[in-house]
């Protein structure tokens, strides 16, 4: 089973208290809990994370962490061309398929390569193999099976600054109303809202990399910095300027 995977980030982190997840990319998140526990909230539901378990969260922009207790976890943030159903969470013991041994090796690689430069390509390959193994022998991941939805998600990620629902429907040769129903049923939101989210999150990424508000607005397809400011505030409940100020204070 060939699975396309783009690994954005990985690592091992230890937290004594809740932390804010970087949601600048709509990525799937895979967690292996080495020790401790935490509670995560997604799509209005709570999920308790316990030691010795593996959890896979779909790409989302509303994942929140609470009730952390000495939470030591290894993580992969990745995008897959096969989209997971919004709100679905997969959980299974790491004893299945010797997954604990897999993460012992991952932890060893991370410890050997703290800058994560040499191990990125290797871990991307390992993750692809792991997901393929799950598909064949492990818990079945709740992938969206409709190829039109998967193609729509790929197009949005690639072309969010210029994409519209009408253009998306035209590119997929689908009726616009039908596409909206199809997309919402699988992803949990409308194509236009998903496009807006991708544009804003792309803008957030640009701002954190040093771009000005005006430059981020232009690169994300907004007609003005004012329009970008309004969309950013609506989506993330913070203004672009406030985000840049907070980030500067953390450095």
Task: Provide tags for this entry.
alpha+beta; Jelly Rolls; Arc Repressor Mutant, subunit A; 2 domains
The total of helices stands at 9
Question: How many structural domains can be distinguished in the coordinates?
Answer: 2
Task: State the CATH topology of the largest domain.
Answer: Jelly Rolls
Report the biggest beta sheet as strand number plus sense, adding barrel if it closes: 6 strands, antiparallel
How many strands in all?
6
CATH architecture of the largest domain, by name, is: Sandwich
- The level 1 CATH classification of the largest domain is Mainly Beta
Q: Which range does the strand content fall in?
A: 15-25%
Content-based structural category: alpha+beta
Uncertain residue segments: none
Helicity level:
40-55%
Order of helices and strands: EEEEEEHHHHHHHHH
């Amino acid at each position: 089973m060939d699975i396309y995977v783009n690994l954005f980030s990985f690592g091992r982190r230890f937290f004594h208290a809740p932390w804010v997840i970087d949601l600048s990319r709509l990525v799937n998140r895979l967690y292996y809990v080495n020790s401790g526990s935490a509670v995560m909230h997604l799509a209005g539901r709570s999920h308790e994370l316990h030691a010795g378990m593996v959890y896979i969260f779909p790409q989302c922009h509303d994942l929140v962490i609470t009730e952390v207790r000495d939470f030591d976890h290894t993580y992969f943030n990745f995008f897959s061309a096969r989209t997971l159903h919004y709100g679905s969470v997969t959980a299974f013991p790491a004893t299945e398929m010797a997954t604990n041994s897999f993460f012992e090796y991952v932890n060893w690689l991370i410890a050997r390569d703290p800058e994560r430069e040499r191990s990125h390509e290797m871990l991307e390959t390992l993750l692809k193999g792991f997901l393929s193994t799950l598909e064949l022998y492990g818990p079945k991941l709740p992938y969206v099976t409709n190829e039109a939805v998967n193609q729509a998600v790929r197009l949005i990620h690639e072309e969010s600054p210029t994409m519209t629902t009408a253009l998306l429907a035209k590119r997929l040769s689908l009726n616009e109303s039908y596409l909206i129903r199809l997309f919402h049923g699988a992803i949990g939101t409308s194509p236009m809202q998903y496009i807006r989210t991708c544009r804003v999150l792309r803008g957030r990424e640009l701002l954190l990399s040093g771009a000005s508000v005006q430059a981020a607005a232009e690169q994300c397809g907004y007609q003005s910095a004012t329009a970008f400011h309004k969309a950013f505030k609506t989506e993330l409940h913070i203004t672009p300027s406030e985000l840049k100020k907070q980030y500067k204070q953390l450095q």
